């Protein structure tokens, strides 16, 4: 499924995304196993929802409950899903690229089954085992799981699988890039529709609900949470929407999390309440042009810190003053997770590879206004492709 554009209009998807083909899941697993061998890992236990979905495409509501955890074991020969008995019918609804084992009970029984699976499938008495705990991963687990895996591991030491998994996950397939593009189109359209309907005096909560309704109508699987606030100089970007009323001079700042096919549309958009002053229009244009130029300059083989150095050069040449400094990067990767490695920062030496999705979003606060444009590109063999419509050439205005 794809997004069609006709004379600038977007025809949004009428139905949810279909299953990930078994052939693609097989390629993902083969890449992960190759990297496991490179990193000297005999087994990886997966407990993070996105990691599990990446290798199995198992969609389940069990993630909403803590009592009966779900784990996946990856070895050189086996891909095993370990879930509760309640998971059986869901697994058996269609052909799978894994085998499933079911426990009757809760966490203790789940951990025992993981341990048994490792002992049976790994051909060494002291395997090197890794768990998906690490940067940008929030694996589910417990002391019981960690202690049990440590008791099996070489030197009683459990490794982190984060670097191994990210090496594979950072390179996206055409299907992943397409789903990301659809998610971005869904929120772009919803934002434009909601801003056209909004009026001075509306509350943050009301505008947030308007956006969520349009996001769902446009075909998203989820629309919550949305980071959205009204502000004139007192920006608190992690604050949830509240009862503040929109006033002339306020800026509306949004950051989306809506998903399509499991892929979240991380996209910043802004608007102004009331007509902007001339200096605001000029700064808006300058930062928009800079962000697009920076994103367009990315090439495979570059190092992330070199992209950041190019940003610093462009920013200095534009004479824009001090960039927003509460975070140490001006861009990041994206995929199944809202934010993923690498970071476009002075210290990240990750080599940019074809297939990566990158978000470039430097931010400036000035005299009560905020200027930020999150442009999203997929890296190709020779350059980049913008997978979302560019930010508007002029500031969207609410009257």
Strand order of the largest sheet: 6-5-4-3-7-10
Helix content: 25-40%
Number of domains: 2
CATH homology-level superfamily of the largest domain: Creatinase/methionine aminopeptidase superfamily
Specify the number of helices: 10
Using the CA coordinates, give the radius of gyration.
23 Å
Instruction: Describe the global form.
Output: globular
Please describe the biggest sheet, giving its number of strands, its sense, and whether it closes into a barrel: 6 strands, mixed
How far apart are the termini?
37 Å
Compute the average pLDDT: 94
Structural class per helix/strand content?
Answer: alpha+beta
Q: What is the tally of beta strands?
A: 23
Low-confidence stretches: 1-10
Strand content: 15-25%
Report the CATH architecture of the largest domain: Alpha-Beta Complex
CATH topology label of the largest domain: Creatine Amidinohydrolase
In CATH's first tier, which class of the largest domain applies? Alpha Beta
Describe the structure.
It is a single chain. The chain has 399 residues and is of the alpha+beta class. The chain has 2 domains: 22-169, Creatine Amidinohydrolase, Chain A, domain 1, CATH 3.40.350; 174-398, Alpha-Beta Complex (Creatine Amidinohydrolase), CATH 3.90.230.10. 34% of the residues lie in helices and 21% in strands. It has 10 helices and 23 strands. It has helices at 22-39, 49-56, 88-91, 107-121, 143-152, 162-169, 174-197, 204-217, 278-296, 304-318, and strands spanning 4-6, 9-11, 43-46, 71-75, 79-84, 99-103, 129-131, 133-134, 137-138, 159-160, 227-231, 251-255, 259-260, 263-264, 268-273, 331-333, 340-343, 357-360, 363-366, 369-372, 375-379, 384-386, 397-398. Strand 16 and strand 17 (340-343) form a beta hairpin. Helix 4 (107-121) runs parallel beside helix 5 (143-152). The longest helix has 24 residues, at 174-197. Mean pLDDT is 94; it is low at 1-10.
């Amino acid at each position: 499924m794809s997004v069609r554009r006709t004379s600038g209009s977007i025809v949004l998807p009428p139905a949810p995304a279909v299953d990930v083909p078994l052939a693609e899941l097989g390629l993902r697993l083969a890449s992960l196993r190759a990297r496991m061998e490179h990193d000297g890992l005999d087994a990886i236990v997966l407990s993070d929802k996105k990691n599990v979905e990446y290798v199995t495409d198992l969609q389940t509501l069990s993630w909403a409950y803590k009592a009966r955890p779900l784990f996946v074991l990856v070895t050189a020969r086996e891909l095993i899903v370990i879930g509760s008995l309640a998971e059986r019918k869901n697994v058996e609804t269609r052909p799978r690229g894994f085998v499933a084992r079911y426990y009757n009970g809760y966490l203790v029984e789940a951990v025992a089954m993981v341990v048994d699976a490792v002992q049976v499938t790994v051909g060494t008495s002291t395997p090197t085992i890794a768990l998906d705990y690490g940067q940008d991963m929030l694996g589910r687990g417990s002391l019981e799981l960690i202690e049990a895996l440590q008791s099996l591991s070489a030197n009683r030491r459990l490794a982190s699988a984060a670097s191994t998994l990210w090496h594979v996950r950072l390179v996206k397939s055409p299907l992943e890039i397409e789903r990301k593009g659809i998610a971005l189109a869904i929120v772009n359209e919803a934002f434009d529709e909601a801003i056209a309907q909004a009026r001075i005096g509306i509350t943050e909560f009301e505008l947030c609900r308007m956006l969520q309704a349009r996001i769902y109508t446009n075909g998203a699987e989820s629309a919550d949470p949305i980071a959205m606030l009204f502000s004139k100089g007192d920006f608190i970007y992690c604050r949830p929407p509240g009862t503040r009323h929109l006033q002339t001079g306020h800026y509306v700042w949004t950051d989306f999390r809506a998903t399509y096919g499991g892929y979240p549309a991380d996209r910043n958009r802004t608007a102004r309440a009331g007509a902007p002053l001339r200096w605001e229009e000029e700064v808006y244009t300058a930062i928009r042009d800079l962000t697009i130029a920076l994103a367009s300059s990315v090439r495979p083989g570059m190092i992330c810190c070199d992209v950041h150095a190019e940003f610093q050069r462009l920013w200095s040449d534009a004479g824009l003053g001090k960039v927003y400094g509460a975070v140490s990067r001006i861009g990041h990767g994206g995929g199944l997770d809202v934010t993923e490695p690498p970071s476009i920062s002075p210290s990240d030496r990750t080599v940019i590879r074809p297939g990566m999705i990158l978000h470039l979003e430097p931010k400036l606060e000035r005299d009560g206004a905020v200027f930020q444009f999150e442009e999203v590109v997929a890296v190709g063999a020779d350059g980049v492709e913008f997978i979302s419509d560019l930010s508007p050439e002029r500031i969207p205005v609410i009257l």
